[in-house]
Amino acid sequence: MRVTGIIAEYNPFHNGHAYHLREARRLTKAHYLLVVMGGNFMQRGEPAIVDKFARTEMALRGGADLVAELPTPFATGSAEYFAEGAVELLDQSGVVDTLCFGSESGDLGLVQRAAEVLIEEPEAYRAVLKAELKAGNSFPTAREHALASILAAEDLPEGFLSSPNNILAVEYVKALLKRGSRIKPCTVRRIGNYHGEGLFPDGGFASASAIRRFLLEGAFREGSFKEESVPFREPFVSPLSSQLPETSLRLLTDGRRLVSLEDFSLPLHYRLLAASDPLEFTAFLDVSPDLSRRIFRLRHEFSGYEAFLDRLKTRQYTRTRIARALLHILLGIRNTDIALPSQFRILGFRREAAPLLRRLKEESRLPVVSRPSRGASSDQEAFFSSVYHLGEAYHEYREKLVIVP
């Protein structure tokens, strides 16, 4: 049995993701594709547009065989934390042979070399990194310049570490190398406009962010938002039909709640106002002393989640970094909450993948659970899901496993 691991968010699952799954199966000759997916909150510090169970169904009907949940502290962490948590789950599963990920470069050798440099951090690399940070550049920019200085002879493409999937690809390989994992890396080159702004009616791959923007802007225009449950009308749905598999299109436009950052403006504002010390926020993941003081100082200017993100942004702190910090404050994710995953939680599987599930239960070095029982990690995830579903009658422990034919 050959099993290939995939690490994903599927926010939402679109045609580019379906292509990646097909290519992963073809390149690795996999019998099964096991996906580790972020739950209700994403690595960019945002909520998923629809919940984890809807996205699990999208993935299973789009080519995945089994979907497991990446714990939220990792799913919302930096690229390094995100990768370490996901690779830990795949490695501890005991069944995964290959990890197949997308990358803008498609050059596995270059990804591996970059990962080695970032693990070793030679003196020349550290010197450039220090100089770049001293010049006021953000850490991602400083790291990219330092890496380019080391790999100059290897013709590192400009913007290599500015491309989100290249960043994650390097972090996945780093995590595999640091663990001494037997899992082999494999990459699929991204095609199409994965991170562009618009939709392409000719069938080219639009980005997940462009699809989310189109949906959320349309939700308010069409009257399908949190307070109501109104399916989208056909003229609005039509442009999406070339970008989304049928299941994704149905689950995104059938009138269910579409979630955005603004849904959490009031609870976040309350959290910020409740603080009594400028350094209080440093207890939370991704919040430095300087950022904590800035948040504390500007909290009375809060007029909305997105607007506050823009207000906090500086040359030193990227918008994504700040978004993660605010999300961790909202959810109460502290620096001490980054512990290795303690269970392998299954969100759903295809009936035809029952042999994979049986083998997983036999080989996994972590407890395999399909419905969480009360305990520290399960209760924490239940709380995060309750925050995601604020204002709804929702109970994490009553949610059923997603099983598709």
TrEMBL record:
First-level EC class: ligase
Key words of the record: ATP-binding, Cytoplasm, Ligase, Nucleotide-binding, RNA-binding, tRNA processing, tRNA-binding
Principal location: cytoplasm
Enzyme Commission (EC) number: 6.3.4.-
One Pfam family cited in the UniProt record for this chain: HIGH_NTase1
Gene Ontology molecular-function annotations: ATP binding; ligase activity, forming carbon-nitrogen bonds; tRNA binding
Keyword Cytoplasm annotated: yes
Gene3D superfamilies linked: HUPs (3.40.50.620)
Name of the protein in question: tRNA(Met) cytidine acetate ligase
HAMAP family: TmcAL (MF_01539)
SUPFAM superfamilies: Nucleotidylyl transferase
Record-listed ATP binding positions: 7-20, 102, 165, 190-191
Function as written in the Swiss-Prot or TrEMBL entry: Catalyzes the formation of N(4)-acetylcytidine (ac(4)C) at the wobble position of elongator tRNA(Met), using acetate and ATP as substrates. First activates an acetate ion to form acetyladenylate (Ac-AMP) and then transfers the acetyl group to tRNA to form ac(4)C34.
GO CC terms, sorted: cytoplasm
Family: Belongs to the TmcAL family.
Lineage of producing organism: Bacteria, Bacillati, Bacillota, Clostridia, Lachnospirales
Compartment(s) of residence: Cytoplasm
